[in-house]
Amino acid sequence: MTPESSYIALQKDDILLGKPLPWAVFDRSRKLLLEPGSVVAVQSQLDALLDKGICRERPGADVKLDSRRERRESGVGASTEAAGERALPLDEIKLGIGDPFQIQTQTEHAEARYYVKLIGYLKGKGVLVTLPEVDGRLCLVREGQAFVVRFFSGKSAYAFTASVLRSSSIPFPHMYLSYPSQVRGLVVRTGERVPVRIICAIAMRDDTKTVSAAGMLTNLSVSGALLSAKARLGNPGDLLSIKFRVEIREIEFLAALDAAIRSVSRDDSGEFLHGIQFAGLPDDAAIAMTAFVYQKLAETSR
The pTM is what? Predict the structure, then answer.
């Protein structure tokens, strides 16, 4: 069976407003938009989905590998057999007003990521967040626009799919997202390391002044890294700051992190190897680093 014949195009009458979906919904490029159990709440949301040329998997079709790969790449709906992963209701997660969410657009031509803040939610009804901004300007969102929402709480990274029910600038810029039927949670193993070669800028203290240096990250985890440099950067316990860029699905993230040196050694070429531990990782950086590490793990497991 060909990939095209493995999917069935969805029509207006196939989706009932206010009722849980019995199957996952994909766009015409076979990218996951809504998980089974998601609810299309309003007509404008349904119309926006239909404009994408949506479809579902044909019963019995052999598309498991492709759909799992797409879901793993988007961060939603991956197999629950993965270590540390679980599905749970949103209201069971200890969220606070002002917690940062990362939202990723799910369009055929672009995948942009923005940061918003949680204002509140009502179980089974919707999630209220601030409108995304770029360079101080509000981003335009449409009713029915689909997002993958990611956030970090405790030691877990979470993700769910949602669509815009309504947006408004009164009394302040905000938007209502559809309430997820479930949220995928993945316990972050902070020691999970991936090999990398990332150039970084380093700032450290030398007596009473700050000096700069360049280095190379040769492996990376959510909690730390191995930093290679031509000169010794300090001793165990010394603090430094590093800046580097990671690319997460073609989206660049600039990390500016404080770290402590935990170990120092030399390799066969004479380079100094510094084992560093990140200190006070901000939520947005934790989300980005987690996404980057698991993206690399997914790439090496294919």
Answer: 0.49
**Res 208: pLDDT:** 61
Q: Give the number of other CB atoms < 10 A from CB of residue 92.
A: 9
Q: List the one residue out of 49, 50, 7 whose CA is nearest residue 30.
A: 7
Query: What six digits make up the tokens of 187?
Result: 């316990």
Task: List CB contacts of 278: < 8 A, sequence separation 6 or more.
Answer: 222, 223, 224, 225, 257, 258, 259
Indicate whether 204 and 297 sit together in one domain. Answer: yes
pLDDT, tens digit (0-9, with 9 covering 90-100), for 164-173: 999 998 899 9
What is the C-alpha to C-alpha distance for residues 185 and 156, in angstroms, rounded to an integer? Answer: 6
pLDDT of residue 73: 38
Quick one: pLDDT band at residue 75, thresholds 50, 70, 90?
A: very low
For residue 124, name the pLDDT band (cuts at 50, 70, 90). very high
80 inside domain: no
Handedness of CA 233, 239, 240, 245 (dihedral sign): positive
Contact yes or no for 278/286 (Cβ under 8 A): no
Q: For residues 129 and 131, what is the distance between their CA atoms, to the nearest angstrom?
A: 7
Say if 129 falls within a structural domain.
yes
- Amino acid type, 38: S
Four-point Cα dihedral 149, 288, 292, 277, nearest 10: -140
Distance in angstroms (rounded) separating the CA atoms of residues 269 and 284: 36
The residue written with tokens 């590093």 in the block is 242
For the chain, the straight-line distance linking the first and the last C-alpha, in angstroms and rounded, comes to: 22
Final residue of a domain: which of 19, 43, 74? 74
The CATH number of residue 107's host domain is: 2.30.110.10
DSSP per-residue codes, 245-301: EEEETTEEEEEEEEEEEEEEEE-TTS-EEEEEEEES--HHHHHHHHHHHHHHHHHHH
Amino acid making up residue 55: C
